[in-house]
Amino acid sequence: MVTLNNKSILIGIDIFVGNNKLFSQYLIETIRDQSSNGTNRNISATSAHGIVEANKNPIFLNTLKSFYLNLPDGVPLVWAGRMNGHKKMERCSGVDMFEEVMISSHNEPIKHFFCGGKPGIADELKQAVNVLFNNNQVVGTYSPPFKKMTSDEFSFLGEIINKSGANVVWIGLSTPKQEVFAAELSKYCSVNYIITVGAVFDNFTGHLQRAPKFMQQTGLEWLFRLYMEPKRLWKRYVQIIPAFTIIVIKQKFKSIFNYGDLV
To answer: At 212, phi and psi to the nearest 5?
Structure first.
């Protein structure tokens, strides 16, 4: 059985230090042997954005702390992990992790449910994974309303998911909305995993172009996204980049000099 033991802690949040293949194997094995049945294990593909949001918002910080696993969706988190001694830590972007799981599980009795995106996007993703990855195990889709959902609406969605027989629910919204959504949804359904993956829905349906490989690998994917959506993202990145840098520096000083809680 594959195990996921090593984690790097950043502002009290456990960050996975493995890779996408290891995570995919673990997910498949725990579903196959039924050791995760009905556990609603929340998984987040989180980035520097998520860490900065958590550092500002104690409620969101506790949400990420409560998750079963947080995958490093950005290269900056990998850099931070390697500074903490995890030299073999790799980036586990939501897009690449989703692709790995879809490919690896296409012959497995593992059922998926897509929740997110604008109306129709989840259905498009269902078609896309069938074409791209030969995976026809998507048993349901749902596009949440833009407004905050009520407990009755979550209960209704949970019933749909339970009736579908899904093992994994994929949430494609934005941070921190998707993590809060996953935590709330877990109260109303019974599945193996609930995984937040950000822009994955738009990436694989052709509604959002991904950065070239060299930009993904060098931590410059944010620059490509800024180029593509300057009006929506410039304020976010102006705040995130220096804020995340300060968090990592404080964390490093804390570990070196054994200071108190600096962040």
So the answer is: -60, 155
Domain coordinates in residue numbering, the chain: 7-219
Q: Quote the CA–CA distance of 209 and 225 in Å, as a whole number.
A: 9
Q: Which residues contact 31 (CB under 8 A, 6 or more apart)?
A: 37, 108, 110, 167, 168, 192, 193
Taking all residues of the chain, what is their mean pLDDT, rounded to a whole number?
Answer: 89
Look up the pTM and report it: 0.90
pLDDT tens, position by position, 42-60: 999 999 999 999 999 999 9
Give the rounded distance of the alpha carbon of 99 from its chain centre: 13
Residue pointed to by tokens 């993590």: 179
User: What pLDDT digit, counting tens, does each position of 148-198 carry?
Assistant: 899 999 999 999 999 999 999 999 999 999 999 999 999 999 999 999 998
Question: Of the candidates 174, 193, 172, 179, which has an alpha carbon nearest to the alpha carbon of residue 61?
Answer: 179
Q: Which residues pair with 170 in a beta bridge?
A: 114, 195
Enumerate residues 6+ apart whose C-beta is below 8 A from 249. none
Chain mean position to CA 173: 10
- Residues 6 or more apart whose CB falls under 8 angstroms from that of 261 comprise 254
Residue 8 bridge partners (DSSP) = 15
Instruction: Give the pair of three-digit tokens for residue 27.
Output: 């997910």
3-state class of 24 per DSSP? helix
